[in-house]
Structures
1.
Amino acid sequence: MTPAYRRALVPGLSTLLMLFVLLGLGTWQVYRLRWKEGVLAQIAAAEAAPPVPLAEYAAANTPPPYTKVSATGRFRFDCAAQFGAEVRDTSAGPTIGADQLVPLERAGAATILVDRGWIPQKRETPLDDPTGLVTVTGYVRPRETPHWFSPQDDEAARQFYTLDPEAIGSATGLRDLAPFTLVALGLSMSDSYPAPRQHLPRPPNNHLSYVITWYGLAVALVVIFGVWVRKALLP
């Protein structure tokens, strides 16, 4: 083996190893991209389809997370609470607010905690709180559990930061709430609150940019190694 080849052995093997890693990461992101596109297509199809009546699920069964469902009952505004904190742009400028949580009592079925949407902390118009029998269309959000960095709930003020129906129901005087939250879907009207969600949650899809990044780094690595070989080894 010539001295030039000996000098290129370690850099060449290192470059080859890094090239395999970069190509592997790029290929993995290609598979992730296809998987995420499939998930987004399923969400779009579910969003376009009519909601499934919640009564079709047996009392012992919880609907799958993020299923689009409808439920009929009466709101218990005396047990209303708030969830989270979010600043949004309104006609009055940036305004802090939270989501309104209201139990929905159903005949012959468990009461459901409904996230009716965002309400500003300061507002000039009253909330749109319907009375009587209502039908709510939304998606199922699974129960959350607090973690180390979760803000502390203020049960006395009925301000919560973890969406746990059991804990919220206990603080508001209701027992045996369904173990999930129904997040209302609907059109958001200007200066009319609560402002419900307008579509099902969509996970971010950044995989294409990662594909370009990893494959681009692989190409750059080959170019840099080629330039080094030409300058250091070739006469």
2.
Amino acid sequence: MPGIISGQTDSVRQIADTSQNRVFLLQEVERNGEVLPEVNIKEVTVVGKKGASGRAFYRRYDRLTYNLKKVHPYALIVREKLYEVNAELNRITDEKERRKYLRGIEELVLGEYEDDMRDMTITQGKLLIKLIDRETRNTSYDLIKAYRGGLSAAFWQGIARIFGTNLKAEYDPFGEDAMIEVIVQDIEAGRI
């Protein structure tokens, strides 16, 4: 039989696709008493296109992709730093030492990332707030309140509102943030 590669086993067969020089690994799976071949494929996102409104959609999609590729690494950094800080705070029992540690971390993070944050657009800042909620399961407001106090959180919420954003914004992957979720999953999978 053409296309079957030697060395096949009873449960797994490799068949060469002669048209594209690719090899697919077929697994035999039993369903309802019948043995069927099965191959795992990657998830594909299909986006439709319709006339002028389609072009506008693609421009928004491309812009959103550009902005997410820029801010997504920072959301991952926030998640990792948060885990490190929480682990260290669990170890420190003295309240004075905890405050000193948090001030040191704040100075370190500001020194390292402040210039990058200042270079972000307002749109990128809004996306970062959403992605921080996605990665940490805490809003930016809640994080500031927990580590800096309620007064500081209220101050920064006021500043954010002046610029048209909300530190209390929550990430909704199945609602208004569905497109963001699709793009972030593509970024994490290395597809874009």
